Amino acid sequence: MSLKEQILTDKLPQHIAIIMDGNGRWAKQKGMLRAFGHENGAKSVRTTVETCARLGIGYLTLYAFSTENWNRPKLEVDTLMKLLINSLKKEVKTLTENNIRLNAIGNLDLLPNSAKKELFEVMELTQNNNRMVLTLALSYGSQEEIINAVKAIAFKVKNNIISTDDIDETIINQHLYTQNLPNVDLLIRTSGEQRISNFLLWQIAYAELYFTPVLWPDFQQEDLYAAIVSYQKRERRFGKTSDQIK
């Protein structure tokens, strides 16, 4: 039985998040510049997005550019921003044909104006699509996100808009970038690294973690199927016992 045939359509993760790691190492292995890895990584993005949509995944969030990535060499940052713009232009048709809505989270004000313009245009063009929500985490850092949420909540408490007794999980969720997204069910990280790298720290509280040695440009349908099959074989207890779940 193939991996795809093993997937149970009634037990799909609602929200998959992916740390797309390994572009630079993939390029280095081939004696190429890091930009070559990023360009080929974009192909894996398309494959993954289309596959998730066909399977019936409702939400897919991709860690495209972190707040820490701004510290990379200027040439690489500029290349990534140009790649973002070009990819958005190319993928409008794919998003429309697959009925996918584009969303973005992060400190988007830090993006170059040209990138912001293209991003917001594609988001507007796809805003009525409802098959799947594709979220790009751009200039994103989870610690910064949580700090901003705390500040916003503290401001409301100080100005008597809410009381401290009102603060609960729902209130915090409402002040995060992901306020309109469900919590993550399955977090995938490629390249063999086994860390979260400041990605969706609050939202993955009960996510299943899946680490694969496959470098992102080599990540294909079968790799995604393998991650989902692994997810479906796990018992998600959310703090309860196995007997309670059964």
Radius of gyration from the alpha-carbon trace, in angstroms: 19 Å
What best-fitting shape do the alpha-carbon axes yield? globular
The end-to-end distance, rounded to whole angstroms, is: 27 Å
Q: How many β-strands, per DSSP?
A: 6
Number of helices: 9
The description of the largest β-sheet is: 6 strands, parallel
Q: Going across the major beta sheet, what is the strand order?
A: 3-4-2-1-5-6
Helix content estimate? 40-55%
What share of residues are in beta strands? Answer: 5-15%
Average residue-wise pLDDT: 95
Order of helices and strands: HEHHEHEHEHHEEHH
Q: What structural class do the secondary elements suggest?
A: alpha/beta
Low-confidence stretches: none
Please tell me about this protein's structure:
The chain is α/β, with parallel strands linked by helices and 246 residues long. Helices cover 44% and strands 15% of the residues. Helix 2 crosses helix 3, helix 3 runs parallel beside helix 4 and helix 4 packs parallel to helix 5. The chain starts with a helix and ends with a helix.
Itemize the secondary structure elements and their pairings:
Layout: H1 3-6, E1 15-19, H2 23-29, H3 34-55, E2 59-66, H4 74-97, E3 100-105, H5 113-125, E4 132-140, H6 142-158, H7 169-174, E5 186-189, E6 208-211, H8 221-232, H9 242-245
Parallel strand pairs: 1-2, 1-5, 2-4, 3-4, 5-6
Helix pairs in contact: 2-3, 3-4, 4-5
Outline of the structure:
By secondary structure, this protein is an alpha/beta fold.
